[in-house]
Amino acid sequence: MVMAGNDAPLTVLGIETSCDETAAALVRRDADGRGAILSNVVRSQLDLHAAYGGVVPEIAARAHVELLDPAISQALAEAGLGFVAIDAVAATAGPGLIGGLIVGLTMAKAIALGLGCPFIAVNHLEAHALTAGLTDELRFPYLLLLVSGGHTQLLIVRDVGAYERLGTTLDDALGEAFDKTAKLLGLGYPGGPEVESRALRGRPTIALPRPMLGRPEPHFSLAGLKTALRHAAQARAPLSEQHVADLCASFQEAVADVVSDRTARAMDIYVERLGAKAPRALVVAGGVAANKRLKTALEGVASRHGFRLVVPPPELCTDNAAMIAWAGAVRLSRGLVDELSAPARARWPLDPEAPPALGAGVKA
User: Fold this and answer.
1) To which H or E segment does residue 21 belong?
2) Which of 275, 266, 329, 309 has the alpha carbon at shortest distance from 122?
3) Cα gap 111→86, rounded to integer Å
4) Contact 317, 149 (CB under 8 A)
5) Minimal CA–CA distance to 125: which of 339, 363, 308?
6) Distance CA 252, CA 361 (A)
7) 47 contact partners, CB below 8 Å, separation of at least 6
8) How many Å apart are CA 172 and CA 150, to the nearest integer?
9) Distance between the two ends of the chain, CA-based, in angstroms?
10) Which of 88, 115, 168, 172 has CA atoms 20 to 30 A from the CA of 267?
11) CB within 8 A of 32, min separation 6: which ones?
């Protein structure tokens, strides 16, 4: 549903329950387009899922039911606001675990209905894509590298709701590959920080493949790298602490090379399609953006191609409600609001018109 745009300052309550983080936040968007985070509450479910080595959807949904109301109350208290100060309520509607999404959407719709204010159903991936406008006042267009537990994509962000997918993963997402590597090596959950920590003590001397390097389409494929790592680990069993550190360092280095190559190719396509005079900025979003080795590699790629590198703070790269509230505020400023009948969506691609990537399946 489209309403008239709003040039007044907007205060939006955001709710995020797409996976295993229960989050609520208040964000203000001023008339000039600048934003401010008034509160950003994240209640982690990590302890509930750690024993299983991954997120259990039913456990996550039940925890959202218990944690969401206190999270919203805390967000309002930290912002020093009451419900009457809210101009709209935004909630993640997808993609994600359907049970968790329903919890957050139901709460958001109930609040919006009770207050008589607009409701915005937010695409979680779009929230990642728009966060740089909140943190760095970045304007369109720009190139986005989305690296999370469930998605690894390269997209041109032309405007709100206007995304052109250039590349996607054909199998594992980057965060998924880190988690599976950690599990293979007997490390803790979540795997990304564990692998990064061990890699600091290791040497990247173990030969591992760099899948998809040099391919014309900037797609990713990480399953082969993961298999090669398993073979390398089996060849060195029983693994010492140094073996594990070296395997982590070698895996991380291979990932950095792959991401650098694929991103460089996407930069070339970006310039080809938007022209040499187009603004050159690379935004990196998603939980894996917190990896320091990956950031260093991308700094080099951006410098060589004349792109500005924009990486939001780590707390705004992982799942959070501030980015949901901000996306809601941006959409509200354009007059884009939703009916209370808006559904939860397990899948919700940013570019539904993108041509199929052979083998990508639901990862696209």
Assistant:
1) strand 21-29
2) 329
3) 10
4) no
5) 363
6) 25
7) none
8) 8
9) 26
10) 172
11) none
Tokens 């205060």 belong to residue: 11
Mean pLDDT of the chain: 94
Quote the pTM value: 0.94
Strand order in the sheet with 281-285: 162-168, 152-159, 142-147, 281-285, 308-310
CA-to-CA distance for 140 and 157, rounded, in angstroms? 7
Residue among 36, 39, 23 at smallest CA distance from 92: 23
23-44 burial, b at 16+ Cβ within 10 Å, e below that, comes to bbbbbbbeeeeebebbbbbbbe
Taking the CB of residue 189, how many other CB atoms lie within 10 A of it? 18
d(C-alpha 167, C-alpha 169), whole Å: 7
Distance CA 129, CA 327 (A): 9
Place of tokens 């990480």: 222
Task: Tell me the average pLDDT across 275-296.
Answer: 95
Q: Give every CB contact of residue 2 below 8 A, 6+ residues apart in sequence.
A: 335, 336, 337
Identify whether the C-beta of residue 212 lies closer than 8 Å to the C-beta of residue 221. yes
What is residue 54's predicted lDDT score, i.e. its pLDDT? 79
| Residue 150 CA from chain centroid, whole number | 8
With beta carbons less than 8 A apart as the criterion, state whether 152 and 169 touch. yes
Q: What is the DSSP letter of 28?
A: E
3 state DSSP class of 11: strand
pLDDT over 70 percentage in the chain: 96
Residues forming a β-bridge with 12: 27, 88
- 8 A C-beta contact, residue 192 and residue 146: no
User: Could you read off the pLDDT of 44-84 as tens digits, one per residue?
Assistant: 887 888 877 778 888 999 999 999 999 999 999 999 999 99
Question: What CA–CA distance (Å, rounded) separates 255 from 258?
Answer: 5
Average pLDDT over residues 125-142: 97
Smallest CA-to-CA distance from 142 within 169, 166, 174 is with: 166
Those residues whose C-beta lies under 8 Å from the C-beta of residue 355, and which sit 6 or more positions away, are none
